Amino acid sequence: MIPSPSSTRSFNQVSIDSSALQANFWMLQQKVGKDIRIMAMVKADAYGHGMIETARIFAGAGCDSFGVAEIEEGITLRCAGIQGQIFVLLGFQVSQEQLFFDYDLTPVIFDYQAIELLSQAAVRNGKEITVHLKVDCGMGRLGINPSELPDFLAHLERFPGISLAGIMSHFPMADDPTSRQTLEMFQKYKQVCGQATHRSLILCHIANSGGVLYYPETCCDMVRLGISLYGYYPDGTKGKQHDSAEKLVPAMSFTTQVIQVKSVPAGTGISYGHTFITGQETRIAVLPVGYADGFLRTLSNKAQVLIKGQRARIIGRVCMNLCMADISGIEGVKAGDQVVILGSQGAETVTADEIAAWMGTISYEVLCLFGNNNERNSI
Ligand SMILES: *Cc1c(COP(=O)(O)O)cnc(C)c1O
Question: Which of ligand 1's atoms lies nearest the C-alpha of 229?
Protein backbone atom coordinates (compact mmCIF):
# COMPACT_ATOMS: atom_id res chain seq x y z
CA MET A 1 0.00 0.00 0.00
CA ILE A 2 1.17 3.48 -0.83
CA PRO A 3 0.93 5.63 2.30
CA SER A 4 -1.35 8.63 1.94
CA PRO A 5 0.33 11.99 2.37
CA SER A 6 -0.13 13.77 5.68
CA SER A 7 -1.86 16.68 3.98
CA THR A 8 -3.18 17.41 0.55
CA ARG A 9 -4.76 20.65 -0.47
CA SER A 10 -7.02 21.46 -3.36
CA PHE A 11 -6.37 24.58 -5.43
CA ASN A 12 -9.89 25.58 -4.44
CA GLN A 13 -10.48 26.59 -0.85
CA VAL A 14 -13.54 27.84 0.96
CA SER A 15 -12.66 29.82 4.09
CA ILE A 16 -15.07 30.61 6.88
CA ASP A 17 -14.45 33.67 9.03
CA SER A 18 -15.58 32.59 12.49
CA SER A 19 -15.40 36.12 13.88
CA ALA A 20 -17.91 37.22 11.23
CA LEU A 21 -20.33 34.48 12.29
CA GLN A 22 -19.90 35.50 15.91
CA ALA A 23 -20.38 39.20 15.14
CA ASN A 24 -23.53 38.49 13.13
CA PHE A 25 -24.98 36.41 15.96
CA TRP A 26 -24.28 39.15 18.52
CA MET A 27 -25.65 41.90 16.29
CA LEU A 28 -28.86 39.96 15.63
CA GLN A 29 -29.29 38.96 19.28
CA GLN A 30 -28.95 42.60 20.23
CA LYS A 31 -31.43 43.58 17.57
CA VAL A 32 -34.16 41.15 18.69
CA GLY A 33 -33.41 41.72 22.38
CA LYS A 34 -32.01 39.29 24.91
CA ASP A 35 -35.38 37.78 25.83
CA ILE A 36 -36.00 36.42 22.34
CA ARG A 37 -34.26 33.16 21.50
CA ILE A 38 -32.40 32.70 18.24
CA MET A 39 -32.66 29.31 16.57
CA ALA A 40 -29.57 29.15 14.37
CA MET A 41 -30.54 27.37 11.15
CA VAL A 42 -27.62 25.07 10.43
CA LYS A 43 -29.35 22.89 7.84
CA ALA A 44 -27.64 22.19 4.52
CA ASP A 45 -24.28 22.01 6.34
CA ALA A 46 -24.97 25.48 7.72
CA TYR A 47 -25.64 26.92 4.26
CA GLY A 48 -22.29 25.51 3.18
CA HIS A 49 -20.34 26.90 6.16
CA GLY A 50 -19.91 23.52 7.90
CA MET A 51 -22.60 22.42 10.33
CA ILE A 52 -20.54 21.29 13.30
CA GLU A 53 -17.95 24.07 13.20
CA THR A 54 -20.64 26.71 12.68
CA ALA A 55 -22.87 25.38 15.48
CA ARG A 56 -19.85 25.45 17.81
CA ILE A 57 -19.15 29.06 16.94
CA PHE A 58 -22.78 30.11 17.51
CA ALA A 59 -22.89 28.09 20.75
CA GLY A 60 -19.76 29.90 21.87
CA ALA A 61 -21.46 33.20 21.10
CA GLY A 62 -24.39 32.21 23.34
CA CYS A 63 -26.75 30.35 21.00
CA ASP A 64 -28.82 27.60 22.64
CA SER A 65 -31.12 26.51 19.79
CA PHE A 66 -30.30 24.94 16.46
CA GLY A 67 -32.46 24.00 13.50
CA VAL A 68 -31.77 21.16 11.07
CA ALA A 69 -33.80 19.55 8.31
CA GLU A 70 -33.41 15.83 9.04
CA ILE A 71 -32.87 13.75 12.16
CA GLU A 72 -29.50 12.56 10.86
CA GLU A 73 -28.13 16.09 11.11
CA GLY A 74 -29.41 16.45 14.66
CA ILE A 75 -27.65 13.23 15.67
CA THR A 76 -24.42 14.47 14.07
CA LEU A 77 -24.62 17.69 16.08
CA ARG A 78 -25.23 15.83 19.35
CA CYS A 79 -22.40 13.41 18.70
CA ALA A 80 -20.12 16.41 18.12
CA GLY A 81 -21.01 17.62 21.62
CA ILE A 82 -23.40 20.43 20.72
CA GLN A 83 -25.66 21.21 23.70
CA GLY A 84 -28.90 23.13 23.78
CA GLN A 85 -32.11 22.38 21.95
CA ILE A 86 -31.91 20.87 18.49
CA PHE A 87 -35.03 21.10 16.33
CA VAL A 88 -35.65 18.64 13.51
CA LEU A 89 -37.86 20.47 11.04
CA LEU A 90 -38.83 17.88 8.46
CA GLY A 91 -40.25 15.13 10.64
CA PHE A 92 -39.02 11.54 10.60
CA GLN A 93 -39.58 8.12 9.08
CA VAL A 94 -41.46 5.35 10.85
CA SER A 95 -39.16 3.59 13.36
CA GLN A 96 -36.88 6.61 13.75
CA GLU A 97 -38.95 7.98 16.66
CA GLN A 98 -36.69 6.36 19.26
CA LEU A 99 -33.80 8.56 18.06
CA PHE A 100 -35.45 11.71 19.43
CA PHE A 101 -35.15 10.18 22.90
CA ASP A 102 -31.68 8.72 22.44
CA TYR A 103 -30.24 12.03 21.21
CA ASP A 104 -32.53 14.49 22.98
CA LEU A 105 -33.86 16.10 19.81
CA THR A 106 -37.06 18.13 19.44
CA PRO A 107 -39.34 17.12 16.58
CA VAL A 108 -41.45 19.54 14.63
CA ILE A 109 -44.68 17.70 13.81
CA PHE A 110 -47.37 18.22 11.19
CA ASP A 111 -49.35 14.97 11.08
CA TYR A 112 -51.33 12.60 13.28
CA GLN A 113 -49.10 9.62 12.80
CA ALA A 114 -46.13 11.44 14.33
CA ILE A 115 -48.16 12.04 17.48
CA GLU A 116 -48.97 8.36 17.84
CA LEU A 117 -45.44 7.12 17.15
CA LEU A 118 -43.84 9.64 19.50
CA SER A 119 -46.38 8.93 22.23
CA GLN A 120 -45.74 5.17 22.05
CA ALA A 121 -42.01 5.78 22.22
CA ALA A 122 -42.46 8.15 25.16
CA VAL A 123 -44.41 5.53 27.10
CA ARG A 124 -41.80 2.90 26.26
CA ASN A 125 -39.00 5.17 27.43
CA GLY A 126 -40.85 6.42 30.50
CA LYS A 127 -39.91 9.90 29.34
CA GLU A 128 -42.07 12.79 28.16
CA ILE A 129 -41.28 14.42 24.83
CA THR A 130 -42.00 18.01 23.86
CA VAL A 131 -42.85 18.82 20.28
CA HIS A 132 -43.40 21.93 18.19
CA LEU A 133 -46.28 22.05 15.74
CA LYS A 134 -45.96 23.50 12.27
CA VAL A 135 -48.95 25.41 10.93
CA ASP A 136 -49.14 26.62 7.35
CA CYS A 137 -50.49 30.17 7.58
CA GLY A 138 -49.85 31.02 3.94
CA MET A 139 -46.54 29.55 2.81
CA GLY A 140 -48.23 26.77 0.88
CA ARG A 141 -45.67 24.28 2.09
CA LEU A 142 -45.23 22.09 5.16
CA GLY A 143 -47.65 22.30 8.08
CA ILE A 144 -51.27 21.68 9.06
CA ASN A 145 -53.91 24.10 7.88
CA PRO A 146 -55.09 26.54 10.57
CA SER A 147 -58.62 25.10 10.34
CA GLU A 148 -57.28 21.70 11.46
CA LEU A 149 -55.82 23.10 14.66
CA PRO A 150 -58.68 22.33 17.09
CA ASP A 151 -58.84 18.68 15.96
CA PHE A 152 -55.11 18.37 16.04
CA LEU A 153 -54.83 19.75 19.56
CA ALA A 154 -57.63 17.46 20.74
CA HIS A 155 -55.82 14.49 19.19
CA LEU A 156 -52.60 15.49 20.92
CA GLU A 157 -54.35 15.59 24.31
CA ARG A 158 -55.51 12.02 23.95
CA PHE A 159 -51.99 10.68 23.76
CA PRO A 160 -49.77 10.33 26.83
CA GLY A 161 -46.14 11.32 27.07
CA ILE A 162 -46.22 14.02 24.42
CA SER A 163 -46.69 17.71 25.04
CA LEU A 164 -46.91 20.73 22.82
CA ALA A 165 -44.19 23.29 23.56
CA GLY A 166 -44.29 25.45 20.47
CA ILE A 167 -46.22 26.55 17.41
CA MET A 168 -44.30 27.64 14.36
CA SER A 169 -45.06 28.94 10.90
CA HIS A 170 -42.99 30.32 8.04
CA PHE A 171 -43.14 33.45 5.88
CA PRO A 172 -43.04 33.15 2.07
CA MET A 173 -42.26 36.83 1.36
CA ALA A 174 -40.53 38.38 4.35
CA ASP A 175 -37.43 38.92 2.17
CA ASP A 176 -39.42 41.69 0.47
CA PRO A 177 -39.36 44.71 2.79
CA THR A 178 -42.57 46.03 1.20
CA SER A 179 -44.83 42.95 1.19
CA ARG A 180 -48.22 43.66 2.75
CA GLN A 181 -48.86 39.93 2.69
CA THR A 182 -46.33 39.33 5.48
CA LEU A 183 -48.22 41.36 8.06
CA GLU A 184 -51.55 39.85 7.00
CA MET A 185 -50.11 36.40 7.43
CA PHE A 186 -48.75 37.39 10.80
CA GLN A 187 -52.26 38.33 11.95
CA LYS A 188 -53.47 34.88 10.94
CA TYR A 189 -50.56 33.28 12.80
CA LYS A 190 -51.34 35.25 15.95
CA GLN A 191 -54.92 33.96 15.86
CA VAL A 192 -53.62 30.41 15.56
CA CYS A 193 -51.29 30.89 18.54
CA GLY A 194 -54.14 32.46 20.49
CA GLN A 195 -56.11 29.22 20.22
CA ALA A 196 -53.39 27.26 21.97
CA THR A 197 -51.68 29.53 24.43
CA HIS A 198 -54.12 28.80 27.22
CA ARG A 199 -52.49 25.38 27.46
CA SER A 200 -49.38 26.14 29.45
CA LEU A 201 -46.34 27.73 27.91
CA ILE A 202 -46.24 27.64 24.15
CA LEU A 203 -43.29 29.13 22.30
CA CYS A 204 -44.31 31.02 19.17
CA HIS A 205 -41.92 31.46 16.26
CA ILE A 206 -42.43 32.53 12.68
CA ALA A 207 -39.74 35.08 11.76
CA ASN A 208 -36.82 34.17 9.51
CA SER A 209 -34.06 36.65 8.58
CA GLY A 210 -36.47 38.73 6.52
CA GLY A 211 -38.92 38.82 9.41
CA VAL A 212 -36.30 40.03 11.87
CA LEU A 213 -34.71 42.59 9.54
CA TYR A 214 -37.79 43.99 7.81
CA TYR A 215 -40.75 43.09 10.08
CA PRO A 216 -39.35 43.24 13.62
CA GLU A 217 -42.86 43.18 15.11
CA THR A 218 -43.09 39.51 14.05
CA CYS A 219 -40.30 38.25 16.33
CA CYS A 220 -42.58 36.60 19.00
CA ASP A 221 -40.68 34.30 21.44
CA MET A 222 -38.05 32.93 19.11
CA VAL A 223 -36.67 33.66 15.63
CA ARG A 224 -35.16 31.22 13.17
CA LEU A 225 -32.17 32.76 11.45
CA GLY A 226 -30.17 31.48 8.53
CA ILE A 227 -28.88 33.78 5.82
CA SER A 228 -28.39 36.80 8.10
CA LEU A 229 -26.18 34.80 10.46
CA TYR A 230 -24.02 34.00 7.44
CA GLY A 231 -23.75 37.69 6.58
CA TYR A 232 -26.28 38.34 3.84
CA TYR A 233 -29.55 40.25 3.55
CA PRO A 234 -32.38 38.06 2.27
CA ASP A 235 -33.45 40.57 -0.38
CA GLY A 236 -30.01 40.55 -1.96
CA THR A 237 -29.03 44.08 -0.95
CA LYS A 238 -25.81 45.10 0.69
CA GLY A 239 -27.87 46.43 3.54
CA LYS A 240 -27.40 49.94 2.16
CA GLN A 241 -30.77 51.05 3.39
CA HIS A 242 -30.03 49.77 6.89
CA ASP A 243 -28.17 51.73 9.52
CA SER A 244 -24.54 50.87 10.11
CA ALA A 245 -25.21 49.31 13.52
CA GLU A 246 -27.01 46.62 11.54
CA LYS A 247 -24.20 45.69 9.19
CA LEU A 248 -23.93 41.99 8.56
CA VAL A 249 -20.52 40.54 7.72
CA PRO A 250 -20.26 37.81 5.05
CA ALA A 251 -18.40 34.84 6.51
CA MET A 252 -17.53 32.79 3.43
CA SER A 253 -14.83 33.36 0.88
CA PHE A 254 -13.82 31.10 -2.00
CA THR A 255 -10.44 31.19 -3.69
CA THR A 256 -8.57 29.34 -6.39
CA GLN A 257 -5.18 29.81 -8.10
CA VAL A 258 -3.92 30.57 -11.57
CA ILE A 259 -2.48 27.37 -13.09
CA GLN A 260 -1.41 28.79 -16.45
CA VAL A 261 -1.01 32.20 -18.09
CA LYS A 262 -0.82 32.61 -21.83
CA SER A 263 -1.45 35.02 -24.67
CA VAL A 264 -3.64 34.12 -27.61
CA PRO A 265 -4.07 36.08 -30.87
CA ALA A 266 -7.19 37.89 -32.03
CA GLY A 267 -9.82 35.50 -33.38
CA THR A 268 -9.10 32.68 -30.90
CA GLY A 269 -12.10 30.67 -29.71
CA ILE A 270 -12.08 30.08 -25.95
CA SER A 271 -13.35 26.83 -24.37
CA TYR A 272 -16.15 24.45 -25.42
CA GLY A 273 -18.40 25.73 -28.17
CA HIS A 274 -16.13 28.75 -28.74
CA THR A 275 -18.83 30.97 -27.22
CA PHE A 276 -16.16 33.65 -26.81
CA ILE A 277 -13.83 34.71 -29.65
CA THR A 278 -11.03 37.11 -28.77
CA GLY A 279 -11.31 40.47 -30.52
CA GLN A 280 -7.62 41.22 -30.10
CA GLU A 281 -4.54 39.60 -28.65
CA THR A 282 -5.66 38.51 -25.20
CA ARG A 283 -3.87 37.30 -22.07
CA ILE A 284 -5.77 34.60 -20.29
CA ALA A 285 -5.41 32.93 -16.92
CA VAL A 286 -6.51 29.31 -16.76
CA LEU A 287 -8.23 28.54 -13.45
CA PRO A 288 -8.72 25.03 -12.00
CA VAL A 289 -12.31 25.59 -10.96
CA GLY A 290 -15.53 24.64 -12.72
CA TYR A 291 -19.07 23.46 -12.32
CA ALA A 292 -18.03 20.35 -10.40
CA ASP A 293 -16.81 22.79 -7.74
CA GLY A 294 -20.12 24.67 -7.67
CA PHE A 295 -18.88 27.35 -10.08
CA LEU A 296 -21.82 26.69 -12.35
CA ARG A 297 -21.84 26.67 -16.13
CA THR A 298 -24.44 29.46 -16.10
CA LEU A 299 -21.54 31.72 -15.06
CA SER A 300 -19.95 31.28 -18.51
CA ASN A 301 -19.11 34.68 -20.05
CA LYS A 302 -20.71 36.37 -17.04
CA ALA A 303 -18.77 36.01 -13.81
CA GLN A 304 -15.88 38.18 -12.66
CA VAL A 305 -13.08 37.12 -10.34
CA LEU A 306 -10.38 39.07 -8.51
CA ILE A 307 -6.74 38.75 -9.50
CA LYS A 308 -4.14 41.13 -8.05
CA GLY A 309 -7.00 43.12 -6.54
CA GLN A 310 -8.60 43.74 -9.93
CA ARG A 311 -11.67 42.34 -11.62
CA ALA A 312 -11.16 39.87 -14.45
CA ARG A 313 -13.99 38.55 -16.63
CA ILE A 314 -14.60 34.83 -17.11
CA ILE A 315 -14.56 34.25 -20.87
CA GLY A 316 -15.93 31.22 -22.69
CA ARG A 317 -17.77 28.28 -21.15
CA VAL A 318 -17.09 27.18 -17.62
CA CYS A 319 -15.96 23.53 -17.84
CA MET A 320 -16.20 20.77 -15.25
CA ASN A 321 -12.90 21.65 -13.58
CA LEU A 322 -11.57 24.62 -15.52
CA CYS A 323 -12.44 28.10 -16.67
CA MET A 324 -10.60 31.07 -18.22
CA ALA A 325 -10.28 34.66 -17.09
CA ASP A 326 -9.31 37.59 -19.31
CA ILE A 327 -6.33 39.22 -17.59
CA SER A 328 -5.28 41.49 -20.45
CA GLY A 329 -5.53 44.60 -18.29
CA ILE A 330 -3.76 43.14 -15.25
CA GLU A 331 0.02 43.29 -15.00
CA GLY A 332 2.31 40.57 -13.74
CA VAL A 333 -0.08 37.64 -13.28
CA LYS A 334 1.67 34.28 -13.00
CA ALA A 335 0.85 30.67 -12.18
CA GLY A 336 0.29 30.22 -8.46
CA ASP A 337 -1.31 33.64 -7.93
CA GLN A 338 -4.37 33.60 -5.74
CA VAL A 339 -7.73 34.25 -7.38
CA VAL A 340 -10.75 35.30 -5.35
CA ILE A 341 -14.08 34.01 -6.62
CA LEU A 342 -16.10 35.09 -3.58
CA GLY A 343 -14.78 37.59 -1.08
CA SER A 344 -12.28 40.44 -1.03
CA GLN A 345 -8.85 41.06 -2.50
CA GLY A 346 -7.26 44.47 -2.09
CA ALA A 347 -10.02 47.05 -2.29
CA GLU A 348 -12.34 44.90 -4.42
CA THR A 349 -15.08 42.54 -3.23
CA VAL A 350 -17.28 40.03 -5.01
CA THR A 351 -20.35 39.14 -2.94
CA ALA A 352 -22.60 36.09 -3.07
CA ASP A 353 -25.41 38.46 -4.10
CA GLU A 354 -23.42 39.57 -7.13
CA ILE A 355 -22.65 35.97 -8.14
CA ALA A 356 -26.31 35.05 -7.54
CA ALA A 357 -27.39 37.83 -9.92
CA TRP A 358 -25.07 36.45 -12.64
CA MET A 359 -26.60 33.01 -12.08
CA GLY A 360 -30.19 34.17 -11.80
CA THR A 361 -30.54 32.87 -8.24
CA ILE A 362 -30.13 33.95 -4.59
CA SER A 363 -27.13 34.12 -2.27
CA TYR A 364 -28.39 31.07 -0.33
CA GLU A 365 -27.78 28.82 -3.33
CA VAL A 366 -24.33 30.26 -4.06
CA LEU A 367 -23.21 29.64 -0.47
CA CYS A 368 -24.53 26.05 -0.51
CA LEU A 369 -22.90 25.34 -3.87
CA PHE A 370 -19.45 26.69 -3.02
CA GLY A 371 -19.44 25.51 0.59
CA ASN A 372 -20.71 22.01 -0.06
CA ASN A 373 -18.48 21.21 -3.03
CA ASN A 374 -15.03 22.29 -1.85
CA GLU A 375 -12.44 21.90 0.86
CA ARG A 376 -13.29 24.22 3.68
CA ASN A 377 -11.30 25.73 6.50
CA SER A 378 -11.99 28.12 9.32
CA ILE A 379 -10.08 31.30 9.98
C1 LIG B 1 -34.19 27.82 6.45
C2 LIG B 1 -35.31 28.24 7.30
C3 LIG B 1 -35.27 29.45 8.02
C4 LIG B 1 -34.16 30.47 7.85
O5 LIG B 1 -34.44 31.31 6.76
P6 LIG B 1 -33.45 32.53 6.38
O7 LIG B 1 -34.17 33.26 5.33
O8 LIG B 1 -32.20 31.90 5.90
O9 LIG B 1 -33.24 33.30 7.63
C10 LIG B 1 -36.29 29.69 8.90
N11 LIG B 1 -37.33 28.84 9.04
C12 LIG B 1 -37.42 27.70 8.34
C13 LIG B 1 -38.59 26.80 8.54
C14 LIG B 1 -36.42 27.36 7.44
O15 LIG B 1 -36.52 26.23 6.73
Answer: 9
